[in-house]
């Protein structure tokens, strides 16, 4: 019987592992999508904007605001760059390509920006915006492929730069907030040049003739910067205050050249300084009509990004003459009635400074005992320069401070007439003949003091300083020929940077950043603070216990000078273009005069009787 043999399945063929590897290597490689780690980038972007925005709101104008403004973009740029290269999990090749594109777009776009932009503007505004746009695109990673995201980041970079190409840097506010305009919108200078005001300024000149009656200061006039005592106070006048129902009547309004000059007023003559293209002007207007009476011009121009162009100081009237310091250092003595030049000096040459300070010369000339003094900031004992008022011949040079935008302050302390100025070193006092009487050290590094010293009485002086340095009350004593300044208190309740303060009934009223503040004069403690006026200027109507505030947006408000609460009783828009307004307001002969770097206006005030 034959054996039955069951079929045997074929043995499986063994495949060498090397063969699989070879097959796998021959297949197309599939690149894995990068798993981007986003949270560090988000933290840096949030920190960037927190540093830029929060100090601006809570502590405007302080050193913390300055540190945030400087540090925010640095945190954003360096932090996101480090994240992108070392912690994002993006492939190294993509990191380098992305960084190269980021830099290339910036380099290509920078020349296409408006000429008003500079590197600092790019660093503080454009780069934070570009970085933020790119990080926001990456937030779409769960929904988009890496290829699409790469295109999106490129588009975000190009579009952000493209948007800023449409803009012109317009101005920086008093709390370092940048304002922009579309570059095709006319500038203030463009508007002025297209107006009738520019034609009148261009045609104006000094009045010729053999004899003109000299101008004489009369009651109700305003001889210069912050009034006769340079304390921002008006006495002997009361005005109607029902502004909400009966706004002061507009008498005239027109465009003016750039500059931060205020006014001097003598009768119908209204004096100020302006910039018209390449000419720095001293202009005399008719206070009643706004028409040009005469113009003096110097072929010089000062301009910088923060403060803009034009002169900074205010003309000073004295004994028929007008004393005027321009932003580049030209000191003129003019006949106030005609505008004819009597003499001129160059304080750059006289003081030995290499060039005008970063924001221009800003010292409004002071005339005491027929001597004209200005702060020049020169080296080797040429901080303050003095000239004979009649001839311009140098009288004396003294002082060591080199950083200040203050004007000389007249004072009588311990019964002695003297001149006080605040510099980066503190307070220094001179006799009108030039001898230094006393000094009080309160250093401010290489920064500039701007706020006028406030003379409180026969012994006490206030010195206000920004960037959280505070306000100091100093008491001056005299024993024989020995003068001793001593600190009474220093308060951080108010830190004025460039907005001058006033004192009424034992309280200080003034600005710190965009806060308006009341501080007790005896203790230095804050009573109240309020927003709503930007970084404006204040004038005290002493007989009515009222504060007239000109906001940095061109509004004029009346506030009661009371320490118990902030109480505004009237407000109206006085300068309709609402440009940056840092110029001091003036009330003279029943009229309110206001201006900024673009326009000027005059309003009739209703007087209700003389003060007692």
Outline the fold blueprint.
Layout: H1 17-26, H2 39-58, H3 63-86, H4 92-109, H5 119-138, H6 146-165, E1 167-172, E2 178-182, H7 188-193, H8 196-203, E3 233-234, E4 238-239, E5 249-255, E6 264-266, E7 269-276, E8 279-286, E9 292-298, E10 303-304, E11 308-309, E12 316-318, E13 321-325, E14 330-335, E15 341-346, H9 347-351, E16 366-368, E17 371-378, E18 382-388, E19 394-398, E20 409-413, E21 416-423, E22 426-430, E23 436-441, E24 454-455, E25 460-465, E26 470-479, E27 482-491, E28 502-504, E29 507-512, E30 515-520, E31 526-530, E32 537-541, E33 546-550, E34 555-560, E35 568-573, E36 586-588, E37 591-595, E38 599-604, E39 607-609
Parallel strand pairs: 3-32
Antiparallel strand pairs: 1-2, 4-39, 5-38, 6-7, 7-8, 8-9, 10-11, 12-13, 13-14, 14-15, 16-17, 17-18, 18-19, 20-21, 21-22, 22-23, 24-25, 25-26, 26-27, 28-29, 29-30, 30-31, 32-33, 33-34, 34-35, 36-37, 37-38
Explain this structure:
- By secondary structure, the protein is of the alpha+beta class.
- The protein has two domains: 32-182, no CATH class; 189-609, YVTN repeat-like/Quinoprotein amine dehydrogenase (Methylamine Dehydrogenase, Chain H, 7 Propeller), CATH 2.130.10.
- It is 21% helix and 34% strand.
- It contains nine helices and 39 strands.
- Strands 3-32-33-34-35 form a five-stranded mixed β-sheet, with no helix packed on it. Strands 5-38-37-36 form a four-stranded antiparallel β-sheet, with no helix packed on it. The chain has a four-stranded antiparallel β-sheet with strand order 6-7-8-9, with helices on one face.
- Strand 16 and strand 17 form a beta hairpin.
- Helix 2 crosses helix 5, helix 4 runs parallel beside helix 6 and helix 5 packs antiparallel against helix 6.
- Mean pLDDT is 92; it is low at 1-8 and 11-25.
